[in-house]
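Justification of computing resources. Each target in the renewal requires a structure prediction run like the one illustrated here; the chain below, 739 residues long, is used simply to show the kind of job we budget for.
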Amino acid sequence: MKSLLQEAAGAAQRMDDTACSLLHEVQFDPIRQRRASEKLASEMDGGGYVVEALSSRLTIGGWFVPPQESGICGLRARRGGQLYVARRKHRRHDVWHRYPKHPFSLDSGFAVIVRLQLGWNEFRLEFKEESTRRWREFTVCRIWLSPWWPLKAWVCRPECLSEYEMWARQEHDPSVCELRTMRTTQAEQADRPVLSVLMPTYNTPVKWLERAIDSVLGQTYSNWELCIADDGSQSRHVRRTLRKYAARDSRIRITWRLRSGHICNASNSALESCRGVFTVLMDHDDELAPDALHHVAERIVQQPEVMMIFSDEDKIDESGIRSGPYFKSGWNYDLLLGENCVSHMGAYRTSLLRELGGFRPGFEGSQDWDLALRVVARVPQGAVVHIPRVLYHWRILPQSTASSMEAKPYARDAGRRAVAEHLELHHPGVRMEELPGPPDGWRLHWPLPETPPLVSIIVSNLAPFEELHDAVDMIERNTSYANYEILVADSGGDRSSGELELRAWLLSRSKVRIVEAPGVNCWSKLNNLAARESRGSVLVFLHPGLRPSSPDWLRELCSQACRAGVGAVGGQLRDLLGTIQHGGIVLGMNGSTGYLFRNWLPDANTIGGRPDLVREVTAVTGDCLTVMKYRFEEAGGFDEVALPDMHADLDLCLRLRAAGLRQLCTPFAPLVFQSTQTACDRRVRARRAAEAKQFAAIVQRWRLERAVDPYFNPNLSLEAEVPMLGRRPAIGVEPSGVS
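Resulting structure tokens:
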């Protein structure tokens, strides 16, 4: 059976220190395959939920966080004497983000299946306290099942069934008036590029084939052609459907293949008949947003040099319910090497596709990933454009990779070979490693220079001096890369006997040198002095409160920084609970800057992408910043005058970016903050005192008043450092990054 989800109004409510939320899941008839719906009627007085169901079998699900002092050893729904046991401990990262300090928030999800009687059904949801072993009620749910529910289920259409669908209708999807305006505007344009929609088909269920073709026919942009290649389908229904549509609209052309040659050969057959300036790739069971081709054509006119265009995407199930959006970064080459972040919707200049020979047989299942890699190897970076809008709906079917890569295991192998061949041609010596768990992703081990460089790890003593002992000791014990030195920048001053002993211990370490900087309390100046005294060709600026949690951390940072075209490299910084504190600096967040993926788990996917892959970012924090020494010097180092304490790291990264260098953040160099509370408090006070003045200086220098971070999707909120749904972006406008 399939299900529809609807978030109940008043999503979170408190009962003492208890918080809970319900998602009501409605089952529908698998024989009729008709949409079911449930409509929220009202909230009960005194707390609880009232809903109308259109099925006699219902799943009540959601999350529940008990009082801090209470543990849970059971959860159930009770209606009179009938008891329904709930399935518990479902992962809910959104709840964990809301209550990060609560011990039960991460596994707070639950689901309980109940049977409904005609009329009103009142269920009391209860949890069993671990300490008292007693059941305690935390909310009430009243459900109305009409005697005419089968008829209602037949004729009713669902309304917004999830937080994402509600957001999409209110903040993202164009209104009827906007769609009408698009049709009028494009009809008046003289120079309208022809777009070829390429679609291979093979024994497609007629229902999904019709949905796919209808989504092309419903486009607001009319100057298109649909080039379909049927790969020898045995189904008469498929052939009959294709002929019907071709007879209805002359823009639809069918190529009939006598024998099945799989998706690559079928796509090449369709490509032969494409006459458009750009070719838009589309699967035979997916759907295009009604304004998809409008935005592609608009971008082609605005940027004539563009060679490849890709958009955001989401998934759509058999009931037409949308979920799983992927709001992508702007063009991000390193991310493409780790996963297929182009995927849907991909549009390519037709002449370039023919030059490349089209799709390569043998890469079925990941043929679009292979194509994107071959395209980006041929075109400059500015020729790849991202449209930050969900223009493609990827159908979730049991046999599709949208549901699981296990559905098409050959696709995983094809993806591995596509990346491996690209690396062999353009980056020889790189080794691939498959990341555990779905979705599939790859870690790349970049080679070091033939002679591994000396790395200078620069640690300042602006934090309490006693932290330096643990920092140096942990680096020495947990670093597999041997060719390094540690420079301790010492601002001097009166020292206690313990600090003098520590200083003597530091001097006794063979890899440690102390850089004397008496009276210097400026972060930028202290690090610049140490950099000048360094002997290494690679610099690592490191906060003394950070501890490496992987022996490979320094090799990873060094190998990434030594790559051609790379400026600054940052590690993924975490706290003692293992949650991310820094995954790259984001411009414009909370009126200043923010850290990507902050307070999120390293192995948990988000609507803005995966935290466990190397990605290009605008800047990385100076708490862990790696850069080649000559690049640091060419950029002028840290600004000691205008930015003595704050944002000097951002300023350096922007100068490196202006020189054509990419800034990377790698999760494969994890470091953990173990600063004392005193150090943290002092750091916060220093930041607050310097924030306003120094951020104003950097805004003026780089003209950041209206700058949009090119690596942060504008559909995401700038008020939360974890990727969450935000306000609607302007139609047809792609954010420009800092130059």
